[in-house]
Design a protein that fits this description.
The complex is a heterodimer of chains A (about 475) and B (about 850). With about 475 residues, chain A is of the alpha/beta class. Chain A is about 30% helix and about 15% strand. In chain A, helix 10 packs across helix 11. By secondary structure, chain B is mainly alpha-helical. The chains are: A alpha/beta (about 475), B mainly alpha (about 850).
Chain lengths: ~475, ~850
């Protein structure tokens, strides 16, 4: 750790927490490297958030198919549904949010892919080429078949209470890899998903950990990022900030030690650099044509190419949403709907996985794909060509970042209604993801309103079977 | 750290005899303990926790300690300084000299109004800094209408104020009138309403009829403006309990929702006692107008329309409720049969299901399910045959049922499990082929019993006698009661329903949505004169509160009375008697015997003046709190407040008149070595402007700030066209502007006592590039350019932004910058004067208060 000016005098714990601006997470990291010094004790107080074991993953990409994609039509084949198509199912009926009728067989073909032979639907045949790097969890379950609470559970670990999002927790726990960019970037085109920015809020964690939303509808950098463009030329702005620095230094010299003042002086230098780094990062025209072709010119391709650029620059957590609202909510016309949406994602997904792999980034990047829940094996009334919400069982897949590739974990019952084998609750998923990042979900806590909070509250179990 | 404090405090307060033991015991605090009534009522047999709790500093009666003697008698300006100086002298530290007049003015003005001092007419201090004129400045500032705005914002953090409900289903998320609460707080503070009265009104203004003006009802917003958490009543009540207990008492009662508090003397029974208070405090759909009967004639028809829209919605709810309750009678057999089957099925208590219009009410079904569970677990004589017969196999039902019925009359078994004879006899007379016949028999017997009751009532009326209380046959009466007493689902009162769960079908939801939208639209259009208050009232019937095991509404346990936290029996030791008990709760909170309320408040006020509290966990004074840095001073101030009619303004004056407050903030090495946290107050703390003060300051410096007080919240509040104070920016709980969060504005979802104080590049980017900052700088640049010389122009900017002239050592830098920039005209016409103004707006001096 650098012994710069700010460290000349003992620094109180309160100051420690505020001066870095990146909060306690940064302290946790700083504490790892600190040799000696009076601030060490303060850092040790926060030892509970230190990474406790060697992390497998450093960064996370969460691809959020908001609306609840059907697991039965993508990654969890259930031939029995075609047998019982239109008839009532043999298994005990589960209460659904809406009225439902008999079985709805999947209109899509499934095939074995890769060396592992995991079955995947034709809808994702490009993505399936990477199935040997993927761990498909077919036994996910949540608590409630309504979108809003399930989105909040998936993102913030609680159905209703205002809790910090997963991305905020990760940044709080691990800090930033590149201080010139936000640590938690949320890509969502054309507006917000249901429940909006609550999905990426920092809640009681410091505001620095909230997700920075980027409306990827835009392609111009100045429209993509808030407060990133200054009307002066870079030279003029540099002169302006030089004067600011001089005046701030004079101001500080008459006031004795104050790490807050120092931190604020530094923050302008950081912000100045951020303007250029961010501008560079968000400019996709700097990619060679063959790479842009690989991802395709579609919106999802653009989002995923940007994702890779953000990963390269050290953004800790990137959440990519399908889009505003909830397009994956296929209550009816599921066949056309799925063909359309999966068509938008399949090639870019394959491109992202291939690109990360060829750059040697997949090993340390945890890619997570899924929605807030799955869909019923039975058809929804009255149209009978769609599926209702299903939180009893659904699929998510992980790739890279220390996950056992080429595996399938858990299973739903033979109709796909409920997870029955090696069930993985959302809390368990969170615990596992944190584990892969080197964090213990029971020790990553934040004291607020009189108690210690965790992402997993009082729940969660690390699914060690899927960890490489 | 914690344990050491416990040790010190117990030594101080209860003497040496048990402190050593207590200190050891403190390690065991973490063991969860059931708070036993027996322990609380008698002083015998105190367990370890009881001893610790009783010794805990915050649970001790508030003392009025003598100000300690000090060596340096010249320094103190009032008693506060004795408490501070005595500790400093112990540590061989000296207090810092008084701050200069410029610093002091800026500090006091910002503390009391959140604005730079230029706006107030007190130039006299500029020539004279004696104590007398400082007093005058304090008085002027306290008399300013902007004082209420500044301190309202602190209170609004605590009250988790927002203009929206957060996530709700098809109700509209806007409150539309939350600002009436905000304005109530501003007015209350400006009029120096005694704090005890302030609290009484915010919890129970509706129950103080005749004692307070009508517009005090707006104070109930403290309870009602919280998040609506998808309209889940259990979560809403949890929010209300939390804001009241952490906000006013510094107790984390919310922890006891699912288990007894792990550290503090708060049991689940306590939580559900308070739950009962809020469960029976309901919000009317038609909200009272702030003007009451004083609505101007030209607005009468608009007022009527608002009233009508509310009545329409209310009637729709009421009609649906009536229908559900009628169905509950006529379709009793369906309800009982379905409830019985669902008892083994999956739990749907936590989610909403969508059904057809003619289906049974899912909520009532759940109540029946619960009711059947209860009758089984508490061995109800009426339902004993039901539960026995429910276990009989389908095959050979008739024979086994008859056998079972016979057996339950065996005197030995009857002794253990009594059986209601009225239902038993009736069942014996029926031919029971399946369990469905049993259900039918129960329903038929009920209508038979009801008929007998009806006849009895009619006969009494005809004979001119007073109506009967019971049926003559006790077993018949017991049967009647089993279905008609208040715990039975058939007796569910209107507010027993989660309103929206009365409408589980799409068709009727449509109508609810329409009516809600109509009401919302008309409220949105209402002029400020038709502002309505988010009030509360006691429900007509009381729903008994039950402990919910592990906080799960599906697991109801024993009924508990509505009452105050049992541990504080010196404050209130009886169940509440009047209605919901809200007024009695409020009275217990402001009781002079309450050891917490006054301490918690004076600490909050101290915290805003010094940047840190005497207790650094301002909303948690429980066992997990950090003990006060100056326990005697805390008690002194708490006593002072109560002795001075709970006057908050008086307390400000008292604190600001102290030499402690008037110290300079400049740091020195000895102080940093001895006390880096400055918890001994050897200097003033330097504080960064909060987001509101910063934005207000930008507008004020550029002479754009609109100082109108109160009124509707401003949507699009961050637009450059909005010149109102930041306090009035519309706060959307669901979608809080990211810039607010970047500047540490607390999430308005729960009560917040302390703001974070982060320094992040996003803040710098705002000041470098946000249109608001650029436009303020532009205004200032243009002002500077009208000056007749560069020197005057520089002074103009310094005076507007920093309220001082430039220092000689600053001038060369500034002049050099201006000279260099002059020759490079910017493409977008940013003049060097605008750029210089922005430098000063971005400067640490502008952003910090010494």
């Amino acid at each position: 750790m650098n012994h710069s000016n700010a460290w000349d005098l003992p620094c109180s714990r309160r100051e420690m927490l505020t001066r870095s601006g990146m909060g306690i997470g940064m302290l946790a990291l700083a504490g790892l490297n600190a040799g000696s010094g009076s601030s060490q004790a303060a850092m040790r107080n926060q030892a509970k958030v230190l990474p406790l074991h060697q992390p497998k993953a450093k960064q996370v990409v969460h691809l959020f198919m908001n609306g609840g994609p059907s697991h039965i039509d993508t990654f969890d084949p259930k031939p029995i549904l075609n047998k019982f198509h239109g008839k009532s199912l043999p298994n005990p009926s589960m209460p659904t949010e809406r009225k439902t009728a008999g079985a709805l067989g999947s209109p899509f073909q499934f095939k074995k892919y890769g060396e592992c032979g995991t079955e995947v639907s034709e809808l994702f045949h490009h993505t399936a080429a990477h199935v040997d790097d993927m761990c498909v969890i077919r036994s996910m379950f949540a608590d409630i078949p309504n979108h809003e609470p399930s989105l909040l559970l998936m993102n913030c670990g609680d159905n209703t209470q205002p809790r910090p999002s997963f991305g905020s927790w990760v940044n709080y726990g691990l800090g930033s890899l590149n201080e010139n960019l936000p640590g938690f970037v949320v890509l969502c085109p054309n507006g917000f998903p249901v429940v909006g920015p609550k999905n990426w809020r920092s809640a009681f964690l410091p505001g620095a950990f909230q997700g920075t939303h980027i409306n990827t509808k835009h392609t111009q950098v100045s429209k993509l990022l808030e407060n990133i463009a200054n009307p002066q030329t870079p030279e003029q702005q540099r002169h302006q900030l030089n004067l600011l620095k001089k005046l701030n230094v004079q101001h500080q010299q008459t006031r004795g030690h104050d790490s807050q003042l120092e931190a604020r002086i530094q923050s302008f230098e950081l912000a100045y650099r951020m303007q250029f780094e961010a501008t560079d990062c968000f400019d996709l025209s700097r990619e060679p044509q063959y790479i842009r072709d690989m991802y395709g010119e579609g919106l999802q391709g653009r989002q995923l190419l940007l994702t890779r650029r953000l990963l390269e620059r050290g953004v800790r957590f990137i959440q990519v949403w399908h889009g505003a609202g909830q397009e994956w909510d296929h209550h009816n016309n599921i066949e056309q709907g799925m063909r359309k949406l999966c068509g938008q994602w399949d090639r870019p997904l394959a491109a992202l996985l291939a690109d990360l792999k060829q750059r040697g980034m997949l090993d340390t990047t945890l890619v997570l794909w899924g929605g807030e829940f799955g869909r019923t094996p039975v058809a929804e009334l009255p149209a009978l060509n769609g599926r209702d919400h299903n939180h009893y069982g659904f699929t998510m897949w992980l790739a890279g970042g220390g996950v056992k590739g080429g595996t399938v974990h858990g299973a739903t019952d033979e109709t796909g209604f409920a997870a029955v084998e090696n069930r993985v609750h959302v809390h368990d998923l969170h615990a596992t993801l944190l584990h892969l990042l080197g964090l213990d979900h029971e020790r990553l806590t934040y004291r607020y309103a009189g108690r210690d909070f965790r992402l997993t509250d009082v729940h969660g179990r690390v699914v060690r079977e899927i960890v490489r | 750290m914690q344990r050491v404090y416990v040790f010190i405090v117990t030594t101080l307060l209860i003497g040496n005899s048990i402190c050593a033991e207590t200190a050891n015991l403190s390690t065991k605090v973490s063991a969860a303990r059931v708070v036993q009534e027996s322990h609380l009522n008698g002083s015998q047999d105190l367990d370890e926790d009881q001893i610790l709790w009783r010794a805990h500093w915050a649970f001790q009666p508030i003392q009025d300690p003598q100000p300690p003697a000090v060596t340096c008698e010249d320094w103190p300006q009032n008693d506060i300084d004795h408490f501070i100086l005595a500790r400093l002298e112990q540590k061989k530290l000296s207090p810092s000299p008084r701050a200069n007049q410029h610093t002091l003015l800026r500090r006091m003005s910002w503390d009391l109004t959140g604005l730079p001092y230029r706006c107030e007419p007190h130039g006299r201090l500029l020539v004279n800094t004696d104590v007398h004129s400082i007093d005058n400045v304090i008085d002027d500032l306290l008399a300013s209408p902007h004082y209420g705005e500044r301190w309202a914002r602190h209170w609004l953090d605590l009250a988790r104020y927002a203009d929206t409900k957060g996530y709700v289903f098809f109700e509209k998320p806007e409150y539309r009138v939350a600002y009436t609460y905000r304005d109530y707080v501003i007015d209350s503070l400006n009029s120096d309403k005694p704090y005890d009265q302030f609290v009484l009104e915010q919890l129970a203004a509706d129950l103080l009829e005749g004692e307070v003006p009508l517009d005090a009802l707006a104070g109930l917003g403290f309870v009602t403006i919280g998040p609506r958490l998808k309209n889940d009543m259990h979560d809403i009540i949890a929010d209300r309990i939390d804001v009241v207990t952490r906000g006013l008492l510094g107790l984390t009662v919310g922890c006891a929702r699912c288990h007894d508090h792990k550290y503090d003397p708060i049991s689940m029974a306590d939580y559900y006692s308070l739950y009962g208070v809020f469960r029976n405090s309901v919000e009317p759909i038609h909200l009272p107008f702030r003007l009451g009967d004083q609505i101007p004639a030209n607005l009468q028809s608009a007022a009527d329309k608002i009233r009508q829209a509310a009545l329409d919605l209310d009637r729709h709810y009421q009609e649906k409720y009536d229908k559900v309750m009628r169905d509950a009678q006529t379709r009793l057999a369906d309800y009982l049969a379905t409830a019985q089957t669902q008892r083994s099925g999956p739990d749907t208590v936590l989610f909403d299901v969508i059904v057809d219009g003619d289906d049974l009410s899912p909520q009532l079904l759940r109540l029946w399910k619960q009711y059947l569970e209860d009758t089984q677990s508490n061995g109800s004589p009426v339902f004993h045959p039901w539960h026995v017969l429910a276990r009989v196999q389908r095959e050979g039902f008739q024979q086994s049922a008859s056998q079972q019925l016979q057996e339950m009359m065996n005197p030995e078994r009857l002794h253990v499990q009594p059986v209601n004879r009225w239902v038993w006899q009736y069942l014996m007379q029926q031919s029971l082929e399946t369990f469905a016949d049993v259900i039918q028999a129960y329903v038929q017997l009920l209508s038979k019993t009801d008929q007998q009751w009806q006849t009895l009532v009619e006969n009494a009326t005809l004979a001119g006698k007073s109506p009967p209380h019971t049926l003559p046959d006790p077993s018949q009466e017991a049967y009647r009661q089993a279905f008609h007493h208040p715990y039975s689902p058939l007796g569910t009162p209107y507010h027993g329903f989660q309103l929206l769960r009365l409408f589980p079908d799409r068709e009727s939801q449509k109508k609810v949505k329409e009516l809600n939208e109509a009401l919302d639209a008309i409220r949105a259009q209402a002029p400020v004169e038709l502002a309505q208050m988010l009030t509360l009232e006691d429900s007509k019937e009381m729903i008994p509160s039950r402990v919910l095991e592990r906080g799960n509404p599906g697991m109801q346990a024993q009924v508990v009375p509505r009452r105050f936290i049992r541990f504080f029996r010196a404050v209130s030791d009886q169940p509440f008697q009047q209605g919901s008990g809200r007024l009695e709760l409020a009275q217990a909170i402001v009781s002079p015997a309450n050891p917490l309320t006054s301490r918690v408040l004076v600490n909050r006020i101290w915290q805003q003046h010094f940047g840190q509290g005497l207790v650094t966990t301002p909303s948690d004074f429980g066992m997990q709190s950090v003990a006060p840095s100056h326990p005697q001073l805390l008690d002194h101030l708490a006593t002072w407040l109560m002795n001075n009619n709970w006057s908050i303004k008086g307390l400000h004056r008292y604190i600001m008149q102290s030499a402690t407050y008037q110290q300079q903030s400049i740091s020195h090495e000895l102080g940093e070595q001895t006390d880096p946290d400055n918890s001994l107050y050897w200097r003033m703390n330097r504080r960064r402007l909060d987001f509101e003060s910063m934005r207000d300051g930008l507008l004020m410096a550029s002479e754009q700030l609109d100082l109108t007080v109160g009124g509707k919240s401003i949507v699009e509040g961050m637009a450059t066209t909005n010149r109102r104070r930041t306090l009035y920016v519309h706060i959307d709980r669901q979608n809080l502007s990211s810039i607010f969060r970047t500047f540490d504005f607390p999430p308005p979802d729960v009560s917040s006592s302390t703001r974070n104080n982060t320094t992040v590049p996003g803040q710098a980017l705002f000041l470098m590039n946000h249109p608001l900052v650029l436009s303020c700088a532009k205004q200032l640049g243009e002002m500077a350019q009208t000056c007749s010389s560069d020197t005057l122009a520089i002074e103009c900017l310094y005076q507007h932004i920093l309220q001082r002239d430039p220092h000689p050592e600053e001038l060369p830098e500034v002049r050099a910058y201006l000279a260099a920039e002059k020759i490079q005209p910017s493409p977008e016409q940013i003049t060097e004067w605008q750029a210089l103004a922005q430098v000063l707006l971005m400067s640490n001096e502008f952003q910090f208060v010494d």
